[in-house]
Amino acid sequence: MTKKPRKTGLIFFPAFDWAISPTHPEREERLLYTQDQVFEEGLLDFENILEFKPGMATVEDINRAHICVPDARSVITESHLISAGGAITAADKVLRKEVDNAFALVRPPGHHAMLVVHGARGFCNINIEAVMVEYIRKHYGIRKVAIVDTDCHHGDGTQDIYWNDPDTLCISIHQDGRTLYPGTGFPEEMGGPNALGYTINIPLPPRTSDEGFLYTLENAILPILDDFQPELIINSAGQDNHYSDPITNMRFSARGYALLNDRLSPDIAVLEGGYSIEKALPYVNMGIILAMAGLDYDSVREPDFHAESLRQSDELTRKIERDVAEIHRLWKSRHSLKKKMVGDSRYTRRRKGIYYDTDGISEHQEETVRICEDCGGLVLIDSQADTGKRIYAVIIPHHACPACRLEGEDFFGKIPVQQYSHVYLQDRDKDNFQVKSR
Amino acid sequence: MILGIDVGGTHTDAVLIENLVVKRKTKVPTDEKNLLNSLLAVTTNLLRDEQPEKLERVVLSTTISTNAIVQKKTDRVGMILISGPGLPPSLLPVHEDSIHIRGYSNHRGAEMAAIDPEEVAQASRRFQEKEIRHLGVVGKFSTRNPKQETVVRDLLDGSYRHISMGHRLSGHLNFPRRIATTYLNESIWRRYNTFITQIQGFVRDQGITVPIYILKADGGTFDIEHSREFPVQTILSGPAASIMGILSMARCRRDAVALDMGGTTTDIALFADGVPLLEPFGVTIEGHKTLIRGLKTKSIGVGGDSLVSVTDGRLQIGPVREGPAYACGGPCPTPTDAMIVLGMTDIGDALLARRAMEDIGRQLNMGIEDAARAVYEETCRIVSAAVTSMVEEVNNKPVYTIHEILEGKKLIPKTLFVVGGPAGAIAPRMAELLGCPAQIPEHAEVANAIGAALARTTAEMTLLADTEQQLLTIAEDGYQEAIPARFTRADAIRIGQDRLRKKVMAMGAREEDLEIEVIEDMEFNMVKQFYTTGKNIRVKVQVKPGLIAGFTEGGKA
What we know:
B: six-stranded mixed beta sheet
């Protein structure tokens, strides 16, 4: 196999001194064997693989993507700033054209962190991809971004942050939510009224193997990306679809991950989950790095790999084919669906309960969206957690139309602050973040 | 008394040091055909009228290994590679005499696939057919478990003149570099050993009975007998000698830059708190990336004799050297000519120097002095930019813990040491450009020999303790021992310090020079199904590269 080498940036930050708890899957040792493999294979000696030190994200960076309660400082540790900072460094290197693509091999992960953050859920405090995407928009003026979440768990945090943004295509492939945390990510979750269709969920049945993943990539993800024409493709690269992962039930292999990244060809990949730290991560990461760098990954293979025993059943193959066809149909009909869904209403409202499993917090949220033909629409959030905190947030979208802006500013001015512990204004368009408290 | 000798490509320098002071120094042209002639000349010069019993040791820095590699005077080496899955052979530094065999150990040193003795015998038959007498055996992750390399060696022992095993040459991870290092070690092994035998004979003939040491790439020394097994450790010891020499003369405990400007190139080295910086992975020689610990140097193509030209109205300095300065009979203008015009040096013919600068001035539409100033300024600017980028590169080196990111030390040079021909001329301007005072150390012309004479014996050691497997591995020593499940990081550090002490003493170190430090010290919980099953402990200890005791504490050369 001959390929054209690409210049790949590697931001490697294993955080060897940080853990959620000593025996938690998200602990110091997680990237240890990956580091061993990367070093032993001599990957950093390749002229087209450049390693960069991660920068540190700032509170301003976080406030562009999140409403942290009561503030960013109190929901994060230094390690989160470095992890998000690593993703930002990856973006900088790509957008300044120092490299062709980049992989932020950093921890802790972030894709379960939602717009409002009361604490940690699914090992995540802040959404490092979203922090990175908002940084990119602010500093490089990029509008259309596609995030392809290949973690085994539904990327519910990323979905939540971009639920109402038609310029951010969020595609998540994951193990069927009926069989795995966080229990969401079904095809009918398609985004808010002004961004309907731009959230795409592709649940895959347990025991899906390389064949099923690559079929989905070729027949759903790639054609949709081709329609959407993003300026930037980001892979939220979880590695827990691997057959040896202890907390999931899929059968993806290291070589499968390499093939996926080769064909998807993301501009930036950011590590998410993946907890088979000895049997999967060293090989999966090796495969992804080689694929991104355009180097031959055909010999990447887990020492215990056995293709025959990992093959998916024919029945499962047929189910995936049917599901993929349905995903494609939904995507094609996204414009007509909006009319059907919103009718003549001026606002839509959804209520949701959010559970922070890592921190044991429950939140109730009511989200109101202004129906708009000209922008992503004004978003208003009323959120109450069992910590006793109740907040209100006004989100003015990127490229906000005058009407949504006027209404948003008006709301922020009028909200009775006595009812809430904090009232926030996140003006994504003007990069303005304000807080009022009683 | 210590006798320090540096056998360089052009000159052989030697110094005799007594009570840490340079007592005598000498420089003779190197006789490439017979290095022993040069050695005889310098020792005769220095040791005349001296009482031989006062001599404590002889330290030699030699280019024999470097030259063998550069001039390809190497032996053919059969390589047996236990590569396992991962990088394809097309991406490994392999040549036609390499054979890949089955077998694999993983990152924890667990054997995942066994060696097939029949396959090894087959490979050997192919080498025998090609009349190959030297063998290298390298396995992926062999530093985590040397067993498979040893198995192959044992199967073939006696059938070859010599066999090198990858795990003995470095404790660091990097399979492609381990292959290159093992190949180089074996390819120069015979030539190096012949040379060492000659040296030992020569020294005996001189009536010298004191210990003899050889300088390594990391600026440390090892005993000559010990060096026989590891010739590759002596590559690039020339630049190392020069850096150690500057260090000894500068007696500096701070962050510093050393510049050695020669005719063709300028070599840059950095010191952090007075300790020379090492290449993180290993040095590179003739395109071979190795695991050999060596001092970090950067060489740029600007020197006193660099060709100065003008293209599209812009000055170009180097990277080629066409000959000596115009003022010294060379063919074209050089920075040295500019320095002569500016009255910074009095070598050569000043009229010729003016003519060279006049030529440059005509192309730049300026007078002779202005042209000379422009050439001088550009030369200094290029060197200063290279220093700045090297410092930046060091400061941007990735780190892997939050602690290091938050507390990361930044290298901020406080002193600049300049040696080499144009040192006096460029030092003041370099000091201005880099914003720190410049010094020109004493005896700079024999810095290499002084560096060799005063370097201490160094070594490093990597320990991996796996309390789940209850095994401690020190690959460089081919050593494994059973450990209890309760084994701790403190135990690993203690054993590491202890064994390193014994190792360097065997390499010829003196007790008073043993500055042992722990350079890596990590411990990880290994967890299966949410229960801790053991600890993975990694410790690296080293004897810091530096000068022999008594020296750094206020001695003076």
